[in-house]
TrEMBL record:
Chain ranges of the SnoaL-like domain: 14-139
Domain of life according to the entry: Bacteria
InterPro entries documented for this protein: NTF2-like_dom_sf, SnoaL-like
Protein name, as recorded: SnoaL-like domain-containing protein
Length: 162
């Protein structure tokens, strides 16, 4: 096998490993916040990473941990909730990446089932930090017909499939 071909295979393998690691990171968020693991959820972010949920912006890991520990979030856990994220579309460019995915928040209404409380889009910017990926900023917008969620999708898919 030529050096060029080996280099190309290594690059392709690295891209697949990066996309898988980022997909797993995004998928971990729901189970972590639904189980109340504030420290592990916060550790998905860079120390100065932001999380903009529309009407509230968190500016650090500590802010993300405080959100999970908050009375409002703990109330969701106590009622029974599920933050479910669809598979992300990930674009890796060297040591940075962007991902976009949709989500739903379901909360147990009564003994007969769950209610969908929110449906939204998440635009996630990440960077490689040592051997792992971390979120530098994440923006969530509701699928409410306003077009703000569609704007995030357009940004998230801009570099996809190049």
């Amino acid at each position: 096998m030529s050096d060029e071909r080996l280099d190309a295979l290594e690059q392709r393998l690295q891209a697949l490993e990066d996309e898988r690691a980022i997909s797993r990171l995004i998928a971990a968020y729901g189970p972590l916040v639904d189980s109340g693991d504030a420290a592990a959820a916060a550790d998905l972010w860079a120390s100065e990473g932001t999380y903009d949920v529309g009407d509230w912006v968190m500016f650090s890991r500590a802010d993300v941990a405080a959100m999970v520990e908050s009375e409002a979030h703990q109330g969701l856990i106590g009622r029974g909730c599920c933050h479910f994220f669809g598979p992300p579309v990930v674009t890796v460019t060297g040591d940075t990446a962007v991902a976009v995915c949709e989500s739903v928040l379901m909360v147990r209404g009564d003994e007969h089932g769950y209610r969908i409380m929110r449906a939204g889009v998440h635009l996630v910017n990440l960077r490689r930090h040592g051997e792992r990926w971390e979120i530098t900023d994440r923006t969530a917008r509701q699928l409410d017909g306003s077009g703000r969620a569609a704007e995030l999708v357009a940004v998230g898919l801009r570099g996809w499939g190049r």
